[in-house]
Amino acid sequence: MNVTATSETTNTPTQQASAPWRSYLLFTLCAGFYLLPFMRVIFVTRDEGSFLYGAVRIVHGQVFARDFFEVMGPGTFYWLAAFFKLFGVTFLAARICLFISSLGTALSIYFLSRQVCREYQALPCLILVGTSVGALWPGISHHVDSNFFALLSAVCMVIWNNKPRNSLLIAAGALAGVTTCIFQPKGVLMFCALLAWLWIQRRWTSAPLTVLALPTGGYFAIIGLVLAYFWSQGALDSLYYANFAFPRQHYGAVNAVTYAYGIIMYYWANWVMAFGWAKWSVAIAAILITPLLFVAALPLLMLLVGIGYKWKSVTPEIVLYWLSGWALWLSEFHRSDIWHLVFGSPLLIVLCIHALTESRRKLANVAVQILAISAVCLAGFNCCVVLTMGTHPLASRVGNVVMAGAGPDQVLRFLNEHTSPGEEILSYPYCPTYYFLSSTTNPTRYSILMYNYNTPSQFQEVVDILDRRRVRYIIWEAAFAANAADGFPGSQPRSPNDLIMEPYLESHYKQVEDDHGIRIMERKGEGETQATSSSR
């Protein structure tokens, strides 16, 4: 597969004007057809469940932060809720939302790449698509949506640089404001990067001061509208606590990981195992992992590029990509695993490919060719995996889905057979997707509960609700405790005396099924509960 895209040479002005549109149309069709197979898959134990069920809460009249608690910004919840309002609370509506955000991101990267890369214009998008498949994609997330809107703001700036219009500056600022509502650090840093670039442009071109005022007005107009809405709902204090005070105190306790964490455990080891530990399996794994290693090495590579770059020939687009690229990267560095690094790297990838293709050195040419081949192989491998996954879709109350991994389909089958839509259940500690798929209701404010992340008072609040409402079924992902050290190193209780939920569940609930470490618990009768308490 040839991922090289060179500038078109045509004979007539009409052909010259239409050639880019043909390229964009072809890219859109190829990207769309590639993304579609991924849209049918859902991962149960992912953050996506928090967004899916949070958007359902909003559709049913609840207010973010006031009525349910999430540390992610409100933007993705309301963005997804808009699709539920339009198309109904279905899996299809969720995937339309994901498809638009994913395809829009791909088109933005392709557009930005075409501005600076004379060759391999599709390669940055291929690298990002290939490396994105993992813990954060395919699935609704604030990482996906924030990149979509942040890159759109960069697109507006590039277009404005070629065709200055005040509306483009206002749109760029407003899109940065939307990004802030989705993912606060990314939006704020992106806005600062855009202003810094405009300030530099103003110094070079003597543009009026309004070039700074217009995006600033667009940015604060969005922020002001959002704050006014939460103030009108009596939720401003709750919003501050959920999105600023709580994460500052508790996020780092369970999310501190080593740099590029997961690249060996979840990729290299799994690939070598998948091919039977044969000698050639190491070679295949080495090809597949090359784009991930490239992403992990980007900060060092960009430092080397910066040292060797001929700054006399720098273009406005290059300056914009440098400032915005580092803004995106720094915004994702709060958790330095490989998946967050990938979502922070789209513009740095474009810059690095630009530097490699502009270099006259043979080593750079060989490096970009190796990277292109490995990116195509990784993207193709991911597509083959997802196409062979779940040949028989599983029926849920929101539509047919294909579940990744082993076992969760039995839990959903049980919920479909033993609960009714709207019935209260609790999914503990980290699989809120079941609320959405089974159309059941979470009686608490929390979609996940983790020790050293959620406070003891929040755990006790959940126990009190279970006791007061006598919730019949609990979906207890007991295997999470054994595996949590991999994804959330600090989430283990310091001692057995710190356990709150587990003693309550064991004394008040009995296990009716166990599916690959996910226990389905049913509430005991009063007599059984008293007998259990006496025996203890």
DSSP, total strands: 7
Secondary-structure element pattern, one letter each: HEHHHHHHHHHHHHHHHHEEHEHHEHHEEH
**Morphology:** globular
- Low-confidence stretches are 1-17
Oligomer state equals: single chain
Number of helices: 23
Largest beta sheet: what is the strand line-up?
Answer: 4-5-7-6
Largest sheet: number of strands, sense, barrel closure: 4 strands, mixed
As a percent range, the share of helical residues equals 55-70%
> If you average the pLDDT, what whole number results?
89
Strand content: 5-15%
Structural class: mainly alpha
Molecular structure report:
This protein has helices at residues 13-39, 48-59, 75-87, 91-116, 123-132, 142-162, 166-182, 184-205, 210-232, 236-255, 263-274, 279-296, 298-308, 316-331, 338-343, 346-358, 362-387, 408-418, 433-438, 456-469, 479-487, 501-508, 526-535, and strands spanning 41-42, 394-396, 399-403, 425-428, 473-477, 509-515, 518-523. A hairpin with a 2-residue loop joins strand 6 and strand 7 (518-523). It is mainly α. Helices cover 65% and strands 6% of the residues. A four-stranded mixed sheet has the order 4-5-7-6. Strands 1-3-2 form a three-stranded mixed sheet. Residues 1-17 have low confidence and may be disordered. Helix 6 packs antiparallel against helix 7 (166-182) and helix 11 packs antiparallel against helix 12.
